[in-house]
Amino acid sequence: MLHFLSDKKCSICAESDIRTLEFDHINPTTKQFSISQAVRLGYSWGDILKEIEKCRILCANCHKKHTALQTGWYKTSIHGGTDRNRTGL
After folding, report:
1. Model pTM?
2. What one-character DSSP code corresponds to residue 76?
3. Cβ proximity of 24 and 66 under 8 Å
4. Predicted pLDDT at 85
5. Domain count of the chain?
6. Which residues are CB-neighbours of 27 under 8 A, at least 6 positions away?
7. How many CA atoms lie within 13 A of 60 on its CB side?
8. What are the φ and ψ backbone dihedral angles of 38, each rounded to 5 degrees?
9. 4-25 as b/e: b if 16+ CB within 10 A
10. What is the pLDDT of residues 52-75, one digit of tens each?
11. Which structural domain range is residue 61 located in?
12. What are 1-20's pLDDT values in tens digits?
């Protein structure tokens, strides 16, 4: 996996530090499994590559920000640290 990511960069900010790069499923409804879990569990490289085709590369910061927007999560108070989603639940 390190070799696969060695020439990649974040598709949002262009970060190229391999320690920060992650796979982001472009359409979450097509996600069959997490790439990192598949590698740890010994899935075939062919199956992993098929799943990677559904992804883009993001750094950890951009991935977290994108997922927060995608799911409607945000922090309502920097100082208080209260977590809420936009529906108020």
Report:
1. 0.76
2. S
3. yes
4. 47
5. 1
6. 54
7. 4
8. -60, -40
9. bbeeebbebeebeeeebbbbbb
10. 999 999 999 999 999 888 887 765
11. 2-85
12. 888 899 999 999 999 999 99
